[in-house]
Design goal:
The chain has about 290 residues and is α/β, with parallel strands linked by helices. Helix content is about 45%, strand content about 15%. It has an 8-stranded parallel beta barrel, surrounded by 4 helices. The chain has a two-stranded antiparallel ribbon with strand order 9-10.
Length: about 290
């Protein structure tokens, strides 16, 4: 269930940013080879990404966002950055299970060349189009390497361009898309579901609203593009003290009920039986994993 709440994206061609990135306090980093890197600078960015994975692997969890499959650059990206310390790649603009299967094969070959354990490098799926979201279940079921998924909800991003909606921080316009991704992920056994970046780094209130909307649906984290977004994301995508205290009372009350020969009781006026205990255990396990 647990995974990084805040994942900060860092352009892989910016050595100054790569050097400082672990100090900002995000749960994980994504070294970006895709949209933030000019085409002419891709080879240098690959080399820097591999270098800084090695330098920072003991400090934080590191992913690399490779170029989308349709660019023809994905294979070169993977060959360059599949090194010890890489937790996973983010595959942007994923639209089919076939893309995942092809990337899985490339990662398997790269792990063999590098002497890494088979299956070590995970895949975080980026869903940024109508087609990708429509086929989310098939995509997320395509490989055991898939351990997380991020929906591309950033303002004026690829998903908005594809669907043509009017963006709001509240996110009513992406309610169906976000819900479909969560449903597909859970059905495919993928627990870690992430929301896309919030583009306005000066709008702290909008960021809060956006995070809370995603969290209510079952999202467990969000992409960040600036250090000033990390605290808000980490705070919202974690169980609150009130939630933890309530679910601890649920477990205690249910155990006492079972000891009396009953499988049902109430806490704060609400029914508690085996179903509610399952939810309590889920939230408390989430809290414990984040605390580790």
């Amino acid at each position: 269930m647990s995974g990084p709440r805040s994942i900060m994206t860092v352009p892989a061609n910016r050595e100054d940013m790569l050097t400082k990135a672990p100090a900002y306090g995000a749960d994980a980093l994504i070294f970006d080879l895709e949209d933030s890197v000019p085409v002419a600078d891709k080879p240098r960015a690959r080399a820097l990404a591999a270098e800084y994975i090695g330098k920072h692997k003991a400090l934080t969890h590191i992913y690399v966002r490779v170029n989308a499959w349709d660019t023809g650059m994905t294979a070169d990206d993977i060959a360059a950055i599949a090194v010890d310390g890489l937790v996973g790649i983010k595959l942007p603009k994923t639209e089919s299970a076939a893309m995942i299967e092809a990337v899985d094969a490339l990662l398997t070959a790269a792990e063999e060349r590098q002497g890494l354990p088979a299956g070590r490098i995970g895949i975080e799926v980026g869903l940024e189009s109508a087609k990708g979201i429509w086929f989310a279940y098939e995509i997320l079921s395509a490989s055991p390497r898939v351990h997380s998924v991020m929906i591309g909800t950033a303002q004026d991003g690829d998903l908005q361009t594809d669907l043509g909606y009017t963006w709001t921080a509240e996110g009513d316009e992406v309610l169906y898309a976000r819900s479909r991704v969560v449903l597909a992920a859970r059905a495919a056994g993928v627990e870690h579901v992430l929301d896309g970046a919030y583009s306005n780094v000066r709008d702290a209130e909008g960021l809060r609203i956006c995070c809370e909307a995603a969290r209510k649906l079952g999202y467990r984290g969000k992409s960040v593009i600036h250090p000033n977004q990390i605290e808000t994301v980490n705070r919202i995508f974690a169980p609150t003290a009130v939630e933890i205290a309530y679910y601890q009372r649920v477990i205690t009350a249910f155990d006492e009920a079972v000891a009396r020969g009953s499988a049902a009781t109430t806490v704060d006026g609400k029914l508690v039986d085996y179903a509610m205990v399952g939810m309590a255990k889920r939230v408390l396990a989430w809290a414990a994993q984040l605390a580790d």
